[in-house]
């Protein structure tokens, strides 16, 4: 029984964009501006987004040719040996899977900014950070809701994604419009976090380094490609991916500009303030802060749902090929959803949520490496599949950018490369993958 079909271009856009933009634009604005200043943060996200466009174009062409829920493992068939393909795909699953417990934890943290009682009733602490009963309950409850929506089928999940994405965009348009209209350009000075021409370049580079993590998701369109509604034009896969990547870049640049115009960025950095606090102080209004936090909550739930869908489809695609136990390829008899993969992701998400955000940070850094590996494998696969013709220049440039991302995270001399904790987290995920690989039925035929 195949996956159920029902997604249109609108859903493919909201899955691509919605899997990419989370809550970093609220909770990490002080880090972005601290790295680059207004000019460095704006130009860093703009440059990073432009550098990733060839990757997006390559994915669009590849998904059109190979519409498969397995994503990278399908794109590399006939290109890489079976074990290598599994390693690349399993690493890519992490890029989506780690977002889910992160958002489960962040959900409670955001509610704590709105409702003080969420910061009470401490249960225990991990790495010095308190885990409270209301925050944990909220994260586990949201995980249950996301799993239930996904078990009900892709149509409900797509509708859920549409409502959340467009609702969030409407709220963001409201407060960024107010910020741009009432902003003062004098607050942008100094434009860069470090003085001089070399300081400006370093400010931009320090932001470019983090862009891949915050832009991960446009390629998730391919994981839902088997669920396109009948008569869907395959060219629309590429359009959805490219529109999502461009919209994501524009979104980040717009929010950075609005925040920088309404509040002195150095005060924001020194006070470790979020976007909602900057607007609240600039407008002397708690209401606008609540509006921003509500937009963040919508954004959080949509990125949770989008990455949950992408991770479960990849697990389904891997299981269908006999590279893990084929139980992961089982579909719900009524909804046609990959029920076993959904159950596994729900358990992994709920279990990880008990660790809180302190121990999830290193695993998140591993996600930056994971997506680089996935992007690189897809671009290389395209080059091998197409020894000549259109698209090779984009795929070659995309492969170079992806390889640079991998090297940036693994070479010790590079600022921001893996620490011991991140290597341990990567080893744990690799060990789990090895266990799944060894547990596969011997002699199982791999489906083409």
Structure description:
Strands 1-2 form a two-stranded antiparallel sheet. By secondary structure, the protein is an all-alpha fold. It has a single domain, classed as Up-down Bundle (Amino acid/polyamine transporter I). The protein is globular and about 65 Å long. Helix 6 packs across helix 16 (356-385). The longest helix has 37 residues, at 29-65. Helix content is 70%, strand content 2%. The protein is built from 18 helices and two strands. The protein starts with 8 loop residues before the first helix and ends in a 10-residue tail after the last helix. It has helices at residues 9-18, 24-27, 29-65, 72-75, 82-97, 99-114, 133-151, 154-182, 196-208, 211-215, 235-262, 265-270, 275-283, 286-320, 339-353, 356-385, 392-410, 420-438; strands spanning 122-126, 129-132.
How do you describe this structure in short?
This protein has helices at residues 9-18, 24-27, 29-65, 72-75, 82-97, 99-114, 133-151, 154-182, 196-208, 211-215, 235-262, 265-270, 275-283, 286-320, 339-353, 356-385, 392-410, 420-438; strands spanning 122-126, 129-132.
Largest sheet, described in full? 2 strands, antiparallel
Strand tally: 2
* Average pLDDT for all residues: 90
CATH topology name, in short, is: Amino acid/polyamine transporter I
The N- to C-terminal Cα distance equals 16 Å
Kindly estimate the percentage of residues that lie in beta strands according to DSSP.
under 5%
CATH class descriptor name: Mainly Alpha
- Overall helicity: over 70%
Determine the number of helices (DSSP H or I, runs of at least 4 residues). 18
Q: Which structural class do the helices and strands define? A: mainly alpha
Tell me the overall shape: globular
Order of helices and strands: HHHHHHEEHHHHHHHHHHHH
What would you give as the CATH superfamily? Amino acid/polyamine transporter I
